[in-house]
Amino acid sequence: MKPNVLIFTGSFEQGGSERQAVQLARLLHESGRFRVRVACLQPTGVLRGEVERLSLGEIPSFPLTSFYDRNMLTQLRRCVRYLRAHEFDIVQTFDFYTNIFGMTAAALARVPARIAARRETAGTKTTAQLWTERRAYNLAHAIVANAEAVRQELIAAGVAARKVVTIYNGMDIERVAPAPRLSRAEALQLFNLPTDAPRRFVTIVANMRHALKDQPTFLRAAKRVHEVVPDAAFVLAGEGELLEQTRAYAAELGLQQDAFFIGRCAQVAELLHLSDVCVLSSRGVEGFSNSITEYMAAARPVVATDIGGAREAILEGETGFIVAPGDDEAMAAHIIELLQDPVRAQALGQRGHKRVKQLFSCAAQLERTEALYDQLLAARTRANEQRNSFARRDATQRQRGTTK
Q: Which of 9, 143, 222, 295 is the most exposed place for a label (fewest CB within 10 A)?
């Protein structure tokens, strides 16, 4: 009989954790070794359709308003009943909120294998949040870190090293395959980018919901680049509350004719194919950036800030360059270097593409995840057998005592 697995996501919005949860559900379903279901806290988001197309059954939601109100208890009881009814062998969560809720429910339902997650560094969490998440980690049998840097941070914070496993984000290489799907002219038109004169594009793909993505550093670097490479143009893909503020800052820097804000990008492959250099300017919180591996999978050279697992993805000088957070001068210097030496830029991109295929593919993620599942279930079986052996021994000893 196949083990039952529940993938528990916060929502189906287009975020890194949500995409990884949905992708893993698909990979596990296609492998055929496990029976997979998906549950969520909030049922909305563009990724929901991907799950529905897998025909995994109902997608229950357990909406929360707080961890400290009556609704939390109501949803927790509902979830425990659901977990028991379907006899799940494994529950895996993917972010702070599902860690707290999902591990608590799974422990109450006595799910044999409980897997929590840490997908970013601790920088944005309050002391209270970190304390609460540690309690959830105590209920888990394993915690998946998406970068070794994140794993080491957890261990330094006191989480048992034996419980923390590094499994890198899986990259669906075909989604950003470097082969063009549109002509260059068609792609430029798709993103409303200039067609009147040849331009070289420097691209950043990052949401504009959090200041830690630090697009202002990217824009300051862009200003420096444009002074040396006048035909350079700068594409910012992403949406969020900081969009207008960031657009205004670009204008303040004199980049209103050279910085292009294209909003949320669904055609990532087409955008990256147009790009000559790709950048990540974050100054905190990232664990293992999906953007970096997307850039590399698309065979583009990368300039990224030294946060989280960036050094685990990028080989300095071989697939891209790493700079200190906030250092727009160094960032600009590397971008200029790559724009002025397109042969080297192409070579770095090709090596990055090869590295993603070897280390950060969906196949590698699935293999490591299934190995973790097998390990946890085998450990549970051994523990049950040991308890049964002790119980039989105690029963035998009691019987002998009675006979005497």
A: 143
